[in-house]
Design a protein that fits this description.
This protein has about 270 residues and is mainly alpha-helical. The chain is built from twelve helices and eight strands. Helix 2 runs antiparallel to helix 6 and helix 7 crosses helix 11.
Length: about 270
Amino acid sequence: MYQDHRRRRNDNNSAPSFLIMSLLYQIFRHLNTLPVKPPATIVLLFLNIYPHLYKYVNVFGYYLSDIRGNCLKPSDIIWRYNLYGFNYIPYNRLFLSAFIHADDTHLYYNMLSLLWKGCNLERQMKTTRFTIFIIFSLIVSHTLMVSMSYVLSEYFHFDGSLSGYNSCAVGFSAALFSMKYVWNQYHCELSNIWGINIQSKYACWLELIIISIITPNASFIGHLAGILAGIFYMKLSRQINMIDTFINSLFLPTQRRYTYTRGYATQ
């Protein structure tokens, strides 16, 4: 999740950059090796990449090329809420901002991260539960970011650049940090982060600090909100499992169940 950063990208009349072509090739190559394709992850990749390549994508009247008009800006959301209430909250800032990226490099690294995490988590969770998890992560992480920024600015008098209250953040990173936290809780082995060996369940915290140091434009509050969303998801996993079971029984009564053994789907 980047903040206060204008997008630099090709217009519709020019070919995608080498970085984008490399990203598309790596996505195709990785998906081609999977015996069972992850539909939710593929949809998420499309929802992030397509608006970046074609600037005239319009969602409910909002052009996704308008980074300033759709970015996650806590001060604008709080101002509208205080003035008009829930009826006039700019929901495009809360939700569409996740599918807008600052530039090709931002999109490239986020989508490679989504490709790996999404394929593995969707295989483990199954598609319905994974979809619920992503929706939960986006809603909770962005709501937490707005709330924390407001509290830091209003009650602790942090500068707007530190609290993120006046920031203009975009990108799928908050959800990616939530995904990273949940994945690491399922797989408690050692991880190597920039040459530092650490237990996987703590890896996202170290990565949060390192990214904030080496990437000044990265939104610390946004990434932190993503980790907290992952924590809340794990705490509520039993209730979410019940929702998953209900949806499967309601809409997919004859769904064939698959388990994964050594990369192959078996009934």
